[in-house]
Design brief:
globular, alpha/beta, four-stranded mixed β-sheet, 2 domains, Spore Coat Polysaccharide Biosynthesis Protein SpsA, Chain A, single chain, 10 helices
Length: 353
């Protein structure tokens, strides 16, 4: 009989050269995290969802070397075939749908607590030590800051764990701290900045909010922030850990480096006119109602994404009113009714086959 792990960490990937040496980066990050969780004796599982594997390329599960392991961590790879990727706007250009991939893993997670995680990020030692206390509160949703680090070359992939963490700290170029949203947005004050890198709550709570929202495009903008506000509406209290963090080695595909707002002249003139007359609330309302400024993502210029006001602010405002009738996904979220291929590349002592 399979025991329940304390923690499930869910990531997504495909072997498409998203970044240079992606498979090596992934193997390094997974091994790093396995060693951390083993050292701190956290009963846990890492779930990697291989979304829409490219034809002619080996599965990432097949490219992973030995991840070591001292008995506390299971590593599972779940494969989602290409047919489940077809349909959303932009699917032919981008092979990954982050929301759907993450939802597949979270729906199948066995842990009491679940968090999504970009697989090329690194948890600080303080963060893993905090998790190892095994005293999380079911009534809370946990957040911490992400620190972006810039490396001069790929030599960091060969560094021992302790040296790598020290180098990440030395080379930090940006900290994604808590932001204060406009009071005109009428939403809860939550730490949404880069929250998709660490958004930890119970599996039951993820089920209540039905994971990440259903997105008709492959852009998946604002989904982590919406999930955080949905969790708060369902009663979760946010805990922001200030001394713990996640490190990310930045690259050209980092989200903040590829998204830009698109204004039409009349929108800009109207917005400036209203703000100049101190009609901020009306300006915000019109942005929601008329859906501007839209957003464009580099590499998918053919898609104009909804404005942040339409796609995020309006939804967060509803959750601020505790409108639990508002749901952003279907009951079968995460391909719940599909049987998917799965491979366990590392099995913990608690995980009986």
């Amino acid at each position: 009989m399979i025991a329940q792990p304390y923690l499930s960490i869910v990531g997504w990937a495909r072997n498409d050269g998203y970044t240079p040496n992606y498979a090596k980066r992934l193997e390094h990050a997974l091994g790093f995290l396995v060693r951390q969780l083993d050292t701190h004796k956290v009963p846990s599982e890492l779930i990697v969802v291989e979304w829409n594997p490219p034809p002619g390329q080996p599965l990432l599960a097949e490219e992973m070397g030995a991840l070591g392991g001292a008995g506390h961590v299971t590593v599972r790879f779940i494969v989602v075939p290409p047919k489940h990727h077809e349909g959303p706007q932009g699917w032919q250009t981008r092979g990954m749908h982050v929301n759907n991939a993450a939802n597949v893993g979270m729906r199948r997670a066995r842990g009491r607590y679940v968090t999504p995680k970009a697989l090329d990020t690194f948890y600080s030692e303080r963060l893993v030590a905090r998790l190892a206390q095994l005293n999380l509160d079911d009534g809370c949703v946990y957040r911490c800051d992400r620190l972006d680090a810039r490396m001069e070359d790929e030599s960091w992939l060969d560094l021992p764990d302790e040296e790598l963490l020290a180098k990440l700290a030395r080379n930090t170029v940006q900290r994604h701290e808590r932001l204060t949203h406009s009071i005109d947005w009428k939403m809860r004050d939550l730490h949404t900045n880069a929250c998709g890198d660490f958004l930890l709550m119970t599996a039951e709570r993820w089920g209540e909010i039905r994971g990440y929202q259903k997105d008709p495009s492959v852009l998946c903008l604002d989904s982590d922030s919406i999930a955080l506000h949905a969790a708060a509406a369902h009663g979760a209290s946010e805990i922001h850990w200030l001394d713990e963090c996640i490190y990310k080695v930045v690259h050209g595909n980092t989200h903040a480096q590829r998204t830009a707002t698109v204004w039409k002249d009349w929108q800009l003139r109207l917005d400036q006119h209203l703000l100049g007359r101190k009609r901020r609330e009306l300006a915000m309302s019109l942005r929601v109602w008329l859906d501007y400024p839209r957003r464009r993502v580099r590499g998918l210029e053919e898609i104009l994404a909804p404005s942040i006001e339409r796609n995020f602010v309006a939804k967060a405002a509803r959750y601020a009113r505790n409108d639990l009738s508002f749901v952003t996904n279907d009951a079968d979220w995460g391909l719940a009714n599909e049987t998917l291929s799965e491979r366990t590349v590392l099995r913990a002592a608690w995980d009986s086959p």
